[in-house]
Amino acid sequence: MQISNLGELLNATLIHEGSVLSVEGFAINLNELKTGFAFFNNDKKEIAQAVKKGAYAIITENDITIEDKEIFYFRVENLERALVRFLRFFCEDKECEFLLFKSYELSLCKAFYFNILKGNIFADFEKLIKAKKGEIFCYCEENYLNKLCTYSHSLKDANFTLLSRSSFFFTTLICENLYFKNLNLPFFYANSFAKIISFLKEKSQKIIFDFNKIDDFKIYFIDDKF
């Protein structure tokens, strides 16, 4: 990305104009920082280390000492809001999709290998910045998702048949002409499961899930009577 475009996107004030024209990537912590990256951070010590590691642009909300005249320094009013603006642009460019679920449904999303956000822009930065084109992200708070996209949406209800053999421990159902037998899934998750199956079929995506990935659906026996 051209550094001049980055500054405009962030609505940032240019503190010092460097000599490089573009950045190769973006980071908020030193472990992910590479030469040529833009570095978002408010910690002066980490910023100094980022300069030494080869950052091409520094974005911060604090006053800062210019340590390298070859790189760009920007000041933003609020770093969190600047990251939201940047990631919204980035995710729209990648055509990412954001799905709204109930909080109890997020465990089911994990079984389908969906990307589950944490609801904090700093905690979610690495996951979002590494997004592939068309990648799907899930969370349970609409306000947070709508910061990252123009429109987040819930999955449509799907037609399914819950068979009588279903129980608190296992579920058997028919959905989208597919037969799912003895799923390690409580029957009251059947509607949510069916919505995801219908969504994946509509997207022509491969249906893969693994309930062993989540503890919520595991059965624990307290004693030999239960």
From TrEMBL:
Origin superkingdom: Bacteria
Q: What is this protein called?
A: Ferrochelatase
Species this protein is from: Campylobacter jejuni
Lineage start: Bacteria, Pseudomonadati, Campylobacterota, Epsilonproteobacteria, Campylobacterales
